[in-house]
Amino acid sequence: MKKTIIGLLAMAAVVPAAAVPPPVLGQVSWPIEASRLSDTVKVIASDYFEGRAPGSQGEKKTVAWLIKQYQSLGLEPAGDKGGWTQAVPLVHTRLGKADRLEITTQQGKRPLQSDKDIYLASLRPVNRIALNKVPLVFVGYGVSAPERGWDDFKGVDLKGKIAVFLINDPDFSAVSGDDAFEKFGGRSMTYYGRWTYKFEEAARRGAVGALIIHDSQGAGYGWDTVIAPAGEGYDIIRGDKDKPVALQGWLSQAAAQDIFAKSGFDLDSLKKQARQKSFQPVSLKGSVFSASLPVSYQNITSYNVLGQIKGAKRPDETIMFGAHWDAYGIGAPDSQGRTIRSGAIDDGVGVAAVLELARVFKAEHQPDRTLVFASWTAEERGILGSSYYAEHPLFPLDKTVANFTVDVLQTAGRSKDVLLIGAGQNSLENDLAAAAKEENRVVKAELLPERGLFFRADHLPFARKGVPVLLMMGMAGAYDLREGGMAAGEKWLSGYMKCYHQTCDRWTENDDFEGAAEDVKLIYLMGHHLAFSDQKPEWLPNSEFKTKTVTKE
User: For residue 258, which of 123, 349, 357, 489 sits 20 to 30 Å off, Cα-Cα?
Assistant: First the structure.
């Protein structure tokens, strides 16, 4: 008989804590169970939850289900006013079909086809975006980094203009002899390389729009991922002084090449210039951007879901385990007619991991420190739920000892290694190495540092507030699997990336959660060490987050 959602809920029962002694490193009394991870992902990635979009009926079902899980595990509520949730006020926007969308160059009008040439979104709560013959300025990588002696803007006036950016950092394609060579960590992306930074910088400088030229290698994902939001946007509700640009989005590589050529410039040549300190912003003289698009918007309240196990000796000190519950909701039909983007691996497996961690910790003696288990909203829309929490913490951040975040784990089986994302940040990396050694595994540096994964998950707002963090994510490269080695790991990763944010990110009977369970166990071992000790992780000397000051409550 097939398991129903109700039946799977019943599996959350736990053994009384008093019956289980605290484990020691490498001797987990209540191991993470791969079958439980699989069962949870199967449920939360089912069509019942409608793709878990913030503000949707799918959210209502998801939040209610998560609360029931937390309750059945015996957690205590850790949300607003003694409840299970933290309200996160958001604005939800959607662009309609454009009445006008074109760039006029020296050679005449060049229509832009949505989702082929250009992808656009707006986070402004207005009824229409209308831009008429707005000048375009190419700003290279759009980096202002005085601590690195780098400024792509050179005082250019962007007010009322469209800023056009390259994705990633100035040294992403740099070679020896370029000023940018090894200036921004080589292939390892810094925050300057993220699309969020570029849109933020455009807004700070008064631009009305921002367009990033897409490059699959530089972005870390293909064009299908870029257009996956289908014109939807989410943002925290902002004041007039903190407004985003009116339009933000991406140009396809082919469209950008064509537009620059028709404007009298060679894009490849400009890319090379952008790797030098001497680069000057380039006004695409004679080329202007025009767009008229309807916007629908509504203010919504979404929810983070939080539970806790209170500490016995130092209850005011917290260790946090988190994952995002949201996915991309309902979109256009795929080739098989499926419309629900269910987010099984991204991040149903993270939700499952947090629930497993809660189950295992609850089955033990009461920890010395308080453990917080968080399910965040709107990560896919700009890391909004965890960012809101970081600005409105329910537990003092200066006493938050560590944040462990799970976002995408591989489902191809057990592995010999684990990939460290964002090496050189804090001493949790040493804890990871110790835990991996106990499990007969080795820690390796991420194999695809250009993807900038350290800046793409819910731990980031905590790092920016000075809380030591560790991210476990299976997109950092091919794992060396115990069956099939690196080749098998690469096969899984390349296959998964084709389904990233798509309808095919679904649970299947062929998924092997044993490797995911091993990764979650490493988090458990690190978390357990901190839960029953007075030790605190520390930022490493060269980390950009070392000097951050956490919020004191």
Answer: 123
